[in-house]
Write a structure and sequence with these properties.
It is built from 1 helix and 3 strands. It is mainly α.
């Protein structure tokens, strides 16, 4: 004789498969959320690295323009960025940069150019319109970048120090002959 089992006492195979399916979907949802969070952290980290590289490369261009300006027979800015690789004013090969660096933010070889008063190139800037992650805590040489809204506002330009004003003619101080009697 056969015993008849009640359907309510044991879950059917179909109900068990549904539970397993829901468990797998729940685990998959948690994993997808974790991967999305990890991807966002990775993207922010990669952007910070490109930002740090922009600061480094931009300052390399600034220093190269400064060395170019100060080393020639006359004070002038380079006419094009390629002049920083080989100075056309010098008889031999004089390099201020080993190569022209690409813009780390855009990944392109093209830079925005800061024009000098003599028509030369005083510096460079990124052509990226993206908002920077870093908005404060810059080195003294980059203090003007604080609060800027776009990478294109970060201009790595060299401006020579203005000649110091000659001190006004004044009597020599500290000598016994010119000090008033006490």
């Amino acid at each position: 004789m056969r015993t008849v089992r009640s359907r309510t006492s044991h879950p059917s195979a179909r109900q068990q498969r549904g539970f397993t399916y829901l468990t797998a979907l729940f685990i998959l949802t948690i994993l997808a959320g974790g991967l999305a969070l990890a991807g966002e952290v990775w993207q922010t980290s990669a952007m910070r690295e490109r930002e740090a590289e922009l600061l480094h490369v931009g300052n390399e261009y600034r220093k190269a323009v400064e060395r170019y300006y100060l080393s020639g027979p006359q004070r002038q800015y380079p006419r094009e960025l390629a002049d920083l690789i080989k100075d056309p004013r010098q008889p031999g090969t004089v390099r201020y940069l080993r190569r022209l660096y690409p813009d780390p933010i855009t990944g392109k070889d093209e830079w925005g150019v800061v024009k000098a008063a003599d028509g030369g190139i005083a510096g460079v800037y990124s052509l990226s319109e993206a908002a920077p992650l870093k908005v404060a805590g810059f080195a003294v040489r980059d203090a003007s970048f604080e609060g800027k809204k776009r990478y294109a506002d970060w201009q790595f330009a060299f401006a020579p120090a203005s000649p110091a004003a000659s001190p006004a003619a004044s009597p020599a101080s500290g000598s016994a002959a010119s000090s008033p009697p006490k």
